[in-house]
Structure formats: structure tokens, C-alpha cells
Amino acid sequence: MNPLVESPEILDVPDVETPSTSTLPRPPAENLGGTQLPSWTDAAAFCAEALETPPEIIGGILHRGCKLVIGGSSKSRKSWALLDLALAVSTGGRWLAFPTTQARVLYVNFELPTFAIQDRLRTIAAARQTTIPAALTIWNLRGYAAAYGVLLPAIAARMKGQDFGLVILDPSYKLLGDADENSARDIALLLNTLEKLAVQSGAAIAFTAHFAKGSAAHKDAMDRISGSGVFARDPDSILVFTALQAADAFAVEAILRTLPPHPPFAIRWQYPVFRVADDLDPTDLKQPQRAGKLTPTPEQVLALFKDNAEQPRAALLSAVQLRALFDSRGWDRIAAPAVRDALVAEGTLKVHHGAHNSKLTGLPQVVDSYTKQQAEAGTVLDQPALPAANENPLAKFSLSSLSRTS
Asked: Looking at domain 55-276, which of 3.40.640.10, 3.40.50.300, 1.10.3720.10, 2.60.40.10 is its CATH number?
């Protein structure tokens, strides 16, 4: 049972009266799990009614009574951005690229120690050149983590009669309790409860969600958020912060349900706030970094070859063996033939060409000993090597192109 949904004295949405101009019979209001449902009305009467559009708490992004999620990677300073938003709305200042409508703000802090959030608020206020207003209320609940069915009714009860315009819940995962963030059912229940809080209080609700692991650059903005897809489908407004190639910079993409589209833009972290970065391209997203492998120096490769005149074959390496040695040392195996051929051209290595154009590489004296040994044993000896031009597409690789440091 969800205590918040099942507590009509806290979050019952009042019955909405059908306009008297309706020509259709009005069905009786229904009761669903303790919640009174509104009656229906015909579309003509509904559209004839003068409805007041709620204020945009964040201009062009978020109305009062709606939900906002900010998605970003772990440690992308989402909490800093939310504290900056709290100060912006409570003073009526700008936030990122947006104007705000001044309103009372409730910031529910589930994570930061009290000294840390106090320091952040002071630092951000100083950067904004403002004082911390009485319109901003902080509720520090670190150490009081509980499921949303327990916490949200308590928050709703405290909010009664306070006329908050914005409620910020940070971080939202502290509300999950035993709920599974990958379960569409569990997350739908959580977000339905947040929506009921927004409708009943008239306040906008803002919270964060984190990205899934791995690169987000090749995913659609809505698909970057971790957990159930409900996180990206349910909120009225979504702001997605995705890292750019530039250091400490992010693209901000808005996905909006009740407002016109907003073009993406770039922001740059300038402690302790984000600032709009018009000089950056919001499409230049950070790409996944692949672990690079080293190309060894000639000296490192030569050290792989031993001098063994008595058993020369044991000191020679086939192409397969050479690549295996490159792999075991974390070197780029693709470079192995080119490095070998460059050392052969220099005269520090030599190649024995056997049957079927097989190659065994070693120090010149070892290759000579092996060739002599084969001849004395009456073994079928060298076949002519293929012309150098056809031997290897990397044959033009030169020692001068090798780095002398690993």
C-alpha cells in the first residue's frame, strides 16, 4: 500500500466541477482507492472555459504543478545545478539560459551533510552576488532515508498552506527504498506519487536521474537516463546534461511536453556554477575513449630475440609468435610486421624464408646458423621470397616513424 496515495487527508485531489454549460449528463464522481476522481465534461464546454495558465517557474521549461528531471552522468555536478536553481527561483534570477519566476522554494536534501550544503549555498550566493533569501527553505534529511511512501506524505504535510512554487528533491534515488529503479511498475508508482504532490500543492517538482554506465554520445537524449524508461517518459520536462569534448563542459538538451521546443546549448562549469558557453558546439559530444596500445621502440623489439647458435631454431620467431609476444606486453600487435620489417631493412634482424613462404625472424647470426644447419641436414631449403613490394602493405614502415619511448 502506498501511504501517500492512500492518505486522502494529505494528497486528495479535489473534485473538479463540470462547467454549467455542459449539455451532457454528468456521471457521478467515482472513488478510486480513497481518491475522489473528477467528473468528465464535453470538449466544447471544456474549451470554452477560461483556464489560467500556471506561471513558468523556469521560463520556457517548467510550469508550476509540473515535474522536471535533470539527467546527467555521475558526479556531473547535478546537485550544484539544483542548488543554483533553488537560489535563482527564490530570488527571481536567471538560471543557465532561462529566466525564472520568483517563488518560495523547498529544497529537500537527502544526501549532503549539513555543513556541506551550507557551504555550497554560501558559495553559490556569493557567485550570484546575492544574499540567501528567506523564500528558500532547506530541509536536511540526511540520515532519515526512507521509502517515498513514508517521506512524501511527511513532505506534503509540512507544505500545507505554505504556497511553495518549487520543490527540489535531491537525490531522488534516496526515495526508492525497496523499489527497483529498473522496474517500470516501481518507478511509475514513485512518479505518480510525485505528480500527486505537484497537483495537490501547485508546486513544480524537480529531481535528478543519473545516466547508465558507458558512453552516452551515441544514444538519444531520452535514452541516456539509467533505470526504467519511465524516468524519461513521465516527467513534463527533461533537461539532459551530456559531457562535451571540451573539459568541464556539457550540452543541455530540453525535452518538453507542455512548452515549445528549446534548442540545445552548451554550458561550462565555472566553480561554483554552470554558465552558458556560446563558444562551444552542443553537438560536439564527448566520444568513448578506447584503451590505446603502445608501439614498442626498436630496442624493445630487438630484446625479444635471443642469440642461440647451438639451437638456432629455438631463438627464431614466427609471425604468430611475434604477435603473441606483442600481446603479452600490451603492445599494438598490428604494428608487429611493420616493426619487424623496419629492423630487417636496417640489418639488425634477418628473415629466414622457408617452404610456402613461411618466415622465421631472428638475429642475423642466428638465422645464418639455422640456414647452415638446415643445409647440412639435407632439409629442403629456402624458397625465393616474394618480392618486397608484395610482401607486406606495411613494408614502407620506417624506424624513423617509431617512437623511441614506450
From this structure: 3.40.50.300
